[in-house]
Amino acid sequence: MNPRPTRRTRGFRPAGCLTVLALLVLAIIVIVLLWYLLAGRLREPGPTPPGPPPPTSQSADCPDVMLLSIPGTWESASNDDPYNPTANPISLMLSITNPLRAQFPENRLEVYTVPYVAQFSNPIAIPPDGQASYNNSRTEGTARATDILAQRHQQCPLTTYVIAGFSQGAVIAGDVAAQIGAGNGPVPADRVLGVTVLADGRRTANTGPGQPTEIGDPPPTGEGAEVALRGVNVPGITMTGPREGGFGELAPKVFSICAPGDMICDAPREALNPVNALGSLAALIRSAGNPVHALYASNTVDAQGTTATQWTVNWASELIQNAPHPPHS
Which Pfam families is this protein grouped with (predicted)? Predict the structure, then answer.
């Protein structure tokens, strides 16, 4: 007698369950793959594609060299002609730019004198003296110097630059040069042939990395008025102290000239004191017209009797003579 066949439990279908499970696993795999594809893979950065090659020539109306001249306090005006400045006919910077303009043709050298208000209002004058504040004057001068450099570099990418400034103009020239040396300026550092600042209010008289070469025999041991009065901040006058990092990459090309006894750049600490801010600022304003500060055209910098302005002319002339002659198209 054969045993009776075992009856299957109703509704139990192993093949159907496996199919459902397989479809579920497949769906999960598809979801995970889509997740990865949509979320994106982490890609290590590859080599940066090369930028456009440097130009091999520039426009025929571009100068080989641009001399940027920045006059001192009371030696310029906002509406002055940068190519024929007349705001102050005895501006110290004219004794530098005029000989250079006469020496080189216009296609070799463009001389641009930065026009700016160039004033320094006395904050304790009663009644007010009606002048622009030092902060506003310096801001305008810096903006105009930066703008023309950026504009010329965009138009004439192969032009090189010589920068020089006196007094307030030296502070502006030094500030622009420091930005260029830090890689944040309007032109690349390798386009700048050299910088000279005469009577720089941010002079430190220090040596070492980032510092300029001092011209003088010997150079004075004092410091700039803005360094001596660092931290002083009264309406319209901010003493910014030394330049952080100095002149950076440009430092080997920067020269500083300061006449001994010129309180603008050779201030003894006892003469200018942040504790006596208003009295010190009044003394600083008076010193802008003192004989030492006003006589850089006759102050000598070496035993041969070379004056500060003669030295600057000779220095700039040599740079311009040896500057590249970029092709023009």
Answer: Cutinase
